[in-house]
Amino acid sequence: MGVHKHRTATLSRLHLGISCLLLLSACSQSYVVLLAEDDGSLGKVQVTNQQGATILEDNQEAVDLGTEAGKTFTVSAEQIKEDFGAALAASPQKPLSYYLYFEGGGTTLTAESRADVPKIIDEITKRRPAVDISVIGHTDTVGDDQLNAKLSLERAKSVAELFQDAMPDASKVTIDSHGERNLLVPTPDNTAEAKNRRVEVTVR
Amino acid sequence: MIKKQILTVALMASLLSAHAWADESAIGYVKVKSGEASISSSNGIIAAEVGTPLHLGNVLKTGENGSLGVTFKDNTMVSLGPDTEVTIDEYLFAPANGELKLVASLAKGTLQYISGVIAKLRPEAVSVKTPTGIIGVRGTRFLAKVEAE
Questions:
Q1: Which of A171, A175, A176 to substitute to test the interface with B, most B CBs within 10 Å?
Q2: What whole-number distance in Å separates Cα of residue A187 and Cα of residue A192?
Q3: What is the CATH number of domain A96-203?
Q4: More confident call, A19 vs B3
Q5: Is B51–A130 a contact, with Cβ atoms under 8 angstroms apart?
Q6: Considering CB atoms only, which of B34, B73, B138 is closest to A134?
Q7: How far is B15 from chain A (nearest CA, A)?
Q8: In this structure, is residue B75 part of a structural domain?
């Protein structure tokens, strides 16, 4: 019985050794590979080492980190799964952002935005216990920019209060305000614009 | 009664300071974890759990069967496969003041990076260092693997 066990262990070690030999390049390689995002969008990556710089711009295009710059290759889906399966599986849920809009000059939500609040609370609840949120207030350009800085903070605080029950751990709520400096719809000064009177809530 | 009030005030003060501290220094949170994973800082080493806050300078490590997924405050997502070590060297996210920076080091293992707001606003402010090369990001998703020496 003991002998049999020993043989099995030797065999599986042998098997491991062989599969590593077959995949020698993958077993010993340090490399970077560009991947399309879930929505299909593709960016670029620049890899710089002592040999120079390489730009990756195609899906699954890769470059070895240690060797000659400019020499790219394509990595198969199987190889990506083999090397990065665990890292891909540990990917967090994508953060979701919501805009809540206000009546002019104050902290009263529009009726439509009030109706959106339960949706956000649902998303927060779904993501517990890992959830953290940020609440960023904005104004349009009507009035003094100092007052707008204050108003956008008040808007953010009033919205954060709506999530107090869903987010009892206040350390996981970030409140910020950008006043009239970060317009969603660019306008001249002193322009009423409903789309700029908003609080952005991001649920992570 | 007075005692109770003092207690309440003390409790509120500690909650307030904890709140301020957490807001200022947490730069992200652990969202996904399996197997063995730890976070170390100058204060020591702790087991990573879902919800553990991340701070500047933290070293994220996974064991042989471990994996870890974290989301930063700018929505950047980084996930680590097994036997991986990543250090958060620099992190600045104050878009209102134009302060944006994300620099991390991958010493060994496997990593997935999905860009967030920092890379969208200022791509040149994001880089991932490896022992043999530096990865610069132009608003995207990539995978990197570093074999231990």
A1: A171
A2: 9
A3: 3.30.1330.60
A4: B3
A5: yes
A6: B73
A7: 9
A8: yes
**Any domain includes B8:** no
Which residues have a Cβ under 8 Å from the Cβ of A159 and sit 6 or more positions away?
A: A100, A109, A135, A137, A199, A201
Question: What is the pLDDT confidence band of residue B136, given thresholds at 50, 70 and 90?
Answer: very high
* Residue among B62, B50, B52 at smallest CA distance from B22: B52
Q: pLDDT digits over B65-80, tens only?
A: 999 999 999 999 999 9
A117-151 burial, b at 16+ Cβ within 10 Å, e below that, comes to: beebbebbeebeebbbbbbbbbbbbbbeeeebbeb
| CA-CA-CA-CA torsion sign (B69, B31, A199, B14) | negative
Q: How far apart are CA B138 and CA A49, in angstroms?
A: 17
Query: Could you list the residue range(s) of the whole structural domain that residue B94 is in?
Result: 27-146
Compute the distance between CA of residue B98 and CA of residue A69 in angstroms, rounded to an integer: 33
Tens digit of each residue's pLDDT (9 = 90 or more) over A64-77? 998 778 899 999 99
| Helix H or strand E segment including A202 | strand A198-203
Contact A179, A198 (CB under 8 A): no
- If one counts the domains in chain B, the total is 1
Radius of gyration of chain A (CA): 26
Give the pLDDT band (50/70/90) at residue B141: very high
Please report, for chain A, the start and end positions of each structural domain, with discontinuous segments joined by +: 27-89, 96-203
Nearest chain A residue to B134 by CA: give it. A48
Is residue B84 included in any domain, yes or no?
A: yes
Single pTM value for the model: 0.83
